[in-house]
Fold:
Amino acid sequence: MKITAVELRRVELPLVAPFRTSFGTQTSREVLLVRVVTPEAEGWGECVAFSEPLYSSEYIEAAADMLRRFLIPAVTAHPDPDPYRIASVTAPFKGHRMAKAALETAVLDAELRGRGVPLARALGATRDRVPAGVSVGIMNSIPDLLDTVRSYLDEGYLRIKLKIEPGWDLAPVRAVREHFGDDVLLQVDANAAYRLADARQLAKLDPFDLLLIEQPLGEEDLREHAELARLLRTPICLDESITSAKVAVDALLLGATSVINIKPGRVGGYLEAKRIHDVCQAHGVPVWCGGMLETGIGRAANVALAALPGFTLPGDTSASGRYYATDITTPFVLRDGHIEVPNAPGIGVEPRLDILDDLTTSAEVIKT
Ligand code: OSB
Ligand code: MG
Structure:
């Protein structure tokens, strides 16, 4: 494989509605895209880092710097930068998994397009559509929340996830259960907003039959999550803490988690994500595909991953319209509560270059 150029492009898309989590409120999404050019094809990767390091330590400016100064030079200097070799080439540079994932995905996309192979097939997908859940932000009031949840259920979403934080946990869960019943697949996500001392408050969620509680404690709090798991009936599902397949195994063996949210960007790419899927599947541990408010580029690849057989719970793989009025690819739509898996080569979608150009805030091409 030969890479002739790599482009780093930054775009900004307004969100259809503000999205509030325990770590902040977003009204638009700044995105870093990586485009890899080879003689045979071009490939795209979306870096899932946000503008600020509030979800994790990574942020867009650092990812771009990392790519420009270390990752792209190391990969393009390699005589044969095969996608399956990228992780070992970038391994000497510590951390920065979201930056590494974006580059690996772009190279993988280019290689698969060159061979005419869809990403879903390359990863071992067994389905042609995936069930869609939706993540519902913290709202200003319970009536606002109920209106929002009602409209998502009307659209056909098959699972609701409520963002929670201290002061917005029991009341929203109770209200949603009271209004929409016990049959709604319901889970909550705290984005690390609690401490182990909050166990008694979190145990009050037990009667509501939630599928899981996502990342109640801090990213590095594996032991505390294991302790909390013994105090709750609701299963714990780690998100932020799971940074690799190795950490996933450690967390499972410690009893810190019994379900895993797989986000390819957080773990360094789709190949590592598949390893987590494989080890969880072998041990009967359910997984689902998380989201980072991706554009159609990142969403296409997530949907391919979510089509693997071990993804037994609906993911945060919502339709494009849940996030953006205008997406940079053909939008993903909800049909019967499901999203169709792209079956064209590579990630299977093309960026709409006119829209992409309009939303681009900066671009740089690194020639090799
Ligand atoms: O914790 O899963 C999360 C969005 C941004 C950052 C972190 C998270 C989320 C979501 C929404 O919950 C996921 C999505 O719909 O893309
Ligand atoms: Mg989460």
